[in-house]
Each structure stands twice: as structure tokens, then as C-alpha cells.
Design a protein that fits this description.
The protein has 616 residues and is an alpha+beta fold. Among the domains are: 105 residues, Phosphorylase Kinase, domain 1, CATH 3.30.200; 196 residues, Orthogonal Bundle (Transferase(Phosphotransferase), domain 1); 54 residues. The chain contains ten helices and 32 strands. Strands 1, 2, 28, 29, 30, 31 and 32 form a seven-stranded mixed beta sheet that branches. Strands 5, 6, 7, 8, 9 and 10 form a six-stranded antiparallel beta sheet that branches. A hairpin with a 3-residue loop joins strand 23 and strand 24. The radius of gyration is 25 Å and the shape is globular. The two termini are 14 Å apart.
């Protein structure tokens, strides 16, 4: 049969399929097998290594249904998750040839690099003559092959990604256009989207899809490596300048009403142009996780890099007041990394250290961010900086304070001694005698898939009652550019039955598990639900060995759908990197393991469910 492949071990090895099954749902077998830097803590009460996920970071799948067959966010029934292959495929090869079908095709664009979804090319804006970056989207047809993407060849997941890119371009344009009169300096700190060529691709469905951006430079993660060769005093000067410009961008986001939160503030998402001699200019990029900080959005599902999330963030809580505190926390970590390019995640990141166990509740919680760890890391990795950065360490401590209300507002952060403009730079303050600008309400970057169907029982967070209410989905609305929403109805409100229309998917979550439900704890252990406390959002679970433990809601996920006894299955043999056909003899619901019988008569017991998938 044709091989079904997936990449493992950071792309260095592939897992092939052997056997005669014609159609396999085996993608989830790789889920969790090759995680990057998973934190492992061996706890005596379990008697085996336990994987402790980040406080926000392990993906629960679709927040509504069981995870899809590829281990990621699920889609509603009928939605495809594989490359569709329908329609004409552009003949040009990504990374080698610029495709036909755009206003830049008659040029000879220079290839700059590739990202997760797109090829980036340097070209000329024919109207202004400016150099621009053209991101042309592609999709992978195998681990080693990719083709330029068209609307006809995009599956549901990729269409949702394209819709997000349309919204992100509109958002960035609106931020700059409306913000430049209030805060021109802050507006200059946003990398501008010049044009999106995705909408035309939705009309001309065999055309390539692309976006056009300012040439904004390289990200600070790469640039900080160039800073390593600088003398300590020069590096300090450059770090302060770059962080100050990041803070100016954050200041702009907070002149809006409601305030805007970038929500993924890290060195990867700030880029810099220029050089150490002629000057440097920072711009913020990647607004795909942005949050409009209105009160009704405080309790919504959001995304971002777990390493840079402030402690108040959780899976179902987007931010805490003041909204600027979220991005300010990330700016503090950026400054820390710029001061010491040799600093590694394990030197400071709480997720890289064993979690702490509450002696009263038995619950595990992430180790908090520690300035002592930061100081120790810098002393070890960058001892040449120690005598220069007392003010900077003070500033980092303020920007990363555990309590959001204690972190300085953007203007106050810019006034700190470490970031205040030097005497030869005139400070430009935002205009305050005008009404605050507002972002178009129709702009929304959807970060949660439309995974629920009509009739599904869910929960919705009521702003007025400040609690999650049980309700049902009464309608699924597929909006323009993929901006879907739900209509809800519920009972038990103090005013009786209630209805709510046009609710964003980020504001809806699956119901809590009922007593006796079979779940997965900490992305590693099968467990059974004993009870759920709605006030604290805490489960009491029974683990395979009979131990009882309390767990936050975030660390309890649905188990993958079991493979029925007597049915055909595929076993992932990671020693040979093959999928081997077998028959399910028995399923142990408590341990979440299978007994399998292979074609040669061999019987294997206690096979982890992670290694078994149905053969369809």
C-alpha cells in the first residue's frame, strides 16, 4: 500500500505504515511522543514518570469533542483535516520559484526564507517603489514535499488559517491607521501589512494566496545572538533601546478603547531593522493571538507561547486588569534575554523546573518566575554584565511582578531609569485630548475552532454573573471569512431561561466531566472522575493505582476514543518506526491500555492507548 508518513524526532525520522489497511486514523499515535522539552517529574506516589504540562500549554484538542485523529484541535463532523488535493496545483516549487498569479510575478523576487505556512520573498511595490516582503502560502503534501496553496487545494484547517491571515492583516492596518494620530511613535513600532491577496484567492480559487508586508527585519531571538559579541556597555545600551521600542508599541495598543493585547509578546514576535552604528528600529509582528480587552473577553480561550505567559493567564482566562500587564510581562522577559544572549530557557523558565505541590490540597502548581533564578542565570552565563545591570534587574522585576496590578503601565515602564530616552532623544508623548480610537468590531482573529454542533451541551461565561453557565448550542453560524459563532440557550438563570446569539467560539467551552467519566490527567495518565468542584474548578480523580489526587480543570482532558474489542487496529512500533496491524482483544478502561493480538499469533498486554489507533 502507499505509505502514510509523519515526521518524528524533529523531522529526522519518519514513521511508515506496513500492512494492508487501506485507510488509517493513526495520526494521534505521534501525539505526545516527541514533545519538545517536556517537563518530567518523578513522583513517588505514582511510581512512574509523570509529565506535567505547562499551566496553559498542553492542547486539549477541540475544547468540545474528543481530539481529532491527528492529535490536534478537532473540527465539526464532516470537516476534512488532510490535504484535499482538489483543484489545480501551481507548478512552481516553494523555495525555488516565485509563483504566477500575483502582482509581483513579472518581477524576479529574491527568496528570503520559509515559515510554518509560507514562503517569504523580497519584491518591489510597483506603486511606491518600496521594498516589501511577500509571504506566499504553501502546504505540505508529505514530510519532504510542499506545494503552493490555493483555495481549491486547502482543507478546512488551512482555510481557517487563511481566514486568520485576512483578519490579522485588517487588524494591523486598523491599528496603524487609527493609532498614528494618537501615538505616531507607537504606530511606527508595528510592522505594517500592505495588502492581502487571500480574498482574491477565494474568488479565483486556483490562484496562489499571499500577504504583503513591510520589510521589517529579523526577529530579536536571532538578533540577540549578534549582540553577544558586543562589549558589555554597548550591549546594555542596545538592549535598553530595543526594549524601550517594544514598550512604545505596547503603549500604542493601550490607547485604544477597549485596550488591545498582543498576547504573545516575546523576542520571536519583535523584529529589528538597522545596525549597531546607524541605528535600530523595532516593530511588533504576529498579531494572530490578539485579544480585545473588553470585560466580556476576560474569560475566553486564548493562545500564546506558554513560556512567556504571565501567571494570571489560564486556559479559560485571557487576562487580568490592567490589560497592559499581560504584554508588559513579556517585555520584561525580552529585556532579560537581550541583556544576556547566552541565557537559556532552563535558567529562568518556570516550566523547565519541577512543579510545586501544595501541602494542604495536594495539587501541583508551576514554580513561579523567580528573579533569583534570573540573577543566577545571568551571573553564570554573562558574568561580564553583572556590574552594569542593577537598574535593569530592578526593571525586569517590576515588569514581571507576579501580581498584574503591580506591573507598571506602559508610560510608567518607559519612565523607568533603564528605559528612559537618552538626553539627545526627544520624548514624544501620545495625544491625550482626543477620543480613544476603536478597532473595527468586525475584525476578530479566531483562535478556537468551531468544534461544537447543534444540541451540544456546553458552558458560557456570563459577564454580569461572573460565572460559567450551563447551556446548549442552538445554532452554528458560519460567518464571513471564517468568523463563526454560536447561538446559545440556557436555564437556571436568576431571570429564568435565557438565550444568547453570536457568541464567539473562544467564549464557549465543553461541560465539566461527570462522576465516573474516563479522562486523561496531565496528558499522561488515565484516570476516573470522582467529583468536580465548580467554585474552584478542581477535579478529584482516581488514578490507575487507586491513588486519589486533586487536579485543576486545565490538566484534565478527554481520552481519545477507544478502539472497540474485536476490531482491527494499528500498533505504533517506535523501535522499527512502523505501524503494525493487530486485533483488539481487550480494553482496560482504568489503565487506558489494550491487549492486542498480531497476525503471527503474538499477544501483547498493557499496550498504552497512545500507541493504538483504529484501522478503518
Amino acid at each position: 500500500m502507499a505509505g502514510v508518513e509523519d515526521v518524528a524526532n524533529n523531522g529526522d525520522a519518519s514513521l511508515s505504515v506496513s500492512g494492508s489497511a487501506a485507510n488509517l486514523s493513526v495520526g494521534h499515535l505521534l501525539h505526545g511522543r516527541f514533545r519538545f522539552e517536556r517537563l518530567i517529574d518523578t513522583n513517588p506516589m505514582f511510581g512512574r514518570p509523570v509529565f506535567f504540562p505547562s499551566p496553559v500549554g498542553h492542547a486539549p484538542g477541540p475544547w468540545g469533542h474528543a481530539p481529532g485523529p491527528w492529535g490536534g484541535a478537532g473540527l465539526r463532523s464532516g470537516a476534512s483535516q488532510s490535504w484535499s488535493g482538489a483543484g489545480r496545483v501551481p507548478s512552481e516549487k516553494p523555495g525555488e520559484e516565485f509563483p504566477q498569479g500575483s502582482s509581483f510575478s513579472d518581477q524576479s523576487p529574491h527568496h528570503l526564507g520559509a515559515g510554518q505556512f509560507g514562503d517569504v520573498w523580497e519584491a518591489k511595490d510597483t506603486t511606491t517603489g518600496e521594498t516589501v516582503a511577500v509571504k506566499v502560502f504553501y502546504t505540505r503534501t508529505s514530510p519532504t514535499s510542499k506545494v503552493y496553496l490555493t483555495w481549491n487545494t486547502a482543507d478546512q484547517r488551512l482555510k481557517e488559517e487563511m481566514n486568520k491571515n485576512i483578519q490579522e492583516c485588517k487588524l494591523v492596518q486598523d491599528i496603524i491607521w487609527q493609532g498614528k494620530e494618537r501615538d505616531p511613535v507607537g504606530a511606527s513600532r508595528i510592522c505594517e501589512c500592505k495588502e492581502e491577496g487571500i480574498s482574491q484567492g477565494k474568488t479565483n480559487k486556483d490562484s496562489v494566496m499571499y500577504t504583503v508586508w513591510d520589510m521589517c527585519g529579523q526577529d530579536l531571538t536571532k538578533f540577540r545572538q549578534d549582540m553577544a559579541a558586543l562589549p558589555a556597555d554597548k550591549r546594555l545600551e542596545v538592549a535598553r533601546t530595543l526594549t524601550r521600542q517594544v514598550l512604545e508599541g505596547i503603549r500604542l495598543l493601550n490607547v485604544f478603547e477597549p485596550a488591545l493585547i498582543h498576547h504573545d509578546m516575546k523576542a520571536d514576535n519583535a523584529v529589528v531593522l538597522g545596525d549597531f552604528d546607524s541605528g535600530l528600529s523595532v516593530k511588533l509582528i504576529d498579531f494572530g493571538c490578539f485579544v480585545r480587552a473588553s470585560p466580556d473577553r476576560k474569560y475566553s480561550q486564548t493562545t500564546g507561547d506558554p513560556k512567556y505567559m504571565p501567571p494570571e493567564h489560564s486556559q479559560f482566562k485571557a487576562f487580568e486588569d490592567p490589560p497592559s500587564a499581560f504584554d508588559i510581562y513579556g517585555a520584561g522577559l525580552i529585556h532579560m534575554e537581550l541583556l544576556c544572549p547566552a541565557l537559556e530557557d532552563k535558567d529562568w523558565c518556570p516550566l523547565m523546573r519541577p512543579p510545586q505541590r501544595n501541602i494542604f490540597t495536594g495539587q501541583f502548581a508551576p514554580t513561579p518566575f523567580s528573579m533569583d533564578a534570573v540573577r543566577s542565570g545571568i551571573e553564570t552565563r554573562c558574568p561580564e554584565m553583572v556590574n552594569f545591570i542593577s537598574e535593569d534587574l530592578h526593571a525586569i522585576g517590576m515588569l514581571t511582578d507576579r501580581s498584574p496590578e503591580n506591573r507598571p503601565l506602559p508610560a510608567d515602564a518607559l519612565a523607568l531609569e533603564a528605559f528612559a530616552a537618552s538626553s539627545d532623544e526627544a520624548a514624544v508623548e501620545p495625544v491625550t485630548d482626543q477620543p480613544p480610537p476603536q478597532i473595527d468590531e468586525n475584525i476578530r482573529v479566531q483562535v478556537v475552532p468551531m468544534s461544537f454542533d447543534v444540541g451540544d451541551e456546553v458552558e458560557y461565561h456570563s459577564q454580569t454573573m461572573d460565572k460559567w453557565l450551563k447551556c446548549k448550542i442552538t445554532a452554528v453560524n458560519d460567518g464571513e471569512d471564517g468568523l463563526g459563532s454560536y447561538d446559545l440557550s440556557g436555564a437556571g438563570h436568576r431571570f429564568g431561561a435565557w438565550v444568547k446569539s453570536g457568541v464567539a467560539p473562544e467564549q464557549v467551552r465543553m461541560r465539566s466531566f461527570t462522576q465516573g467519566a474516563l479522562v486523561l490527567f496531565a496528558d499522561a495518565l488515565a484516570a476516573t472522575v470522582d467529583e468536580y468542584d465548580e467554585e474552584t474548578e478542581t477535579y478529584t480523580l482516581t488514578l490507575p493505582g487507586g491513588q486519589t489526587i486533586q487536579s485543576s480543570r486545565e490538566d484534565v482532558q478527554p481520552r481519545l476514543l477507544r478502539v472497540e474489542e474485536g476490531s482491527a487496529a494499528m500498533f505504533a512500533d517506535f523501535s522499527s518506526f512502523q505501524f503494525i496491524p493487530a486485533e483488539v482483544q481487550y480494553y482496560n478502561a482504568v489503565r487506558d491500555t489494550y491487549e492486542l493480538k498480531f497476525s503471527d499469533g503474538l499477544v501483547m498486554q498493557d499496550v498504552s492507548a497512545d500507541l493504538v489507533a483504529a484501522a478503518q
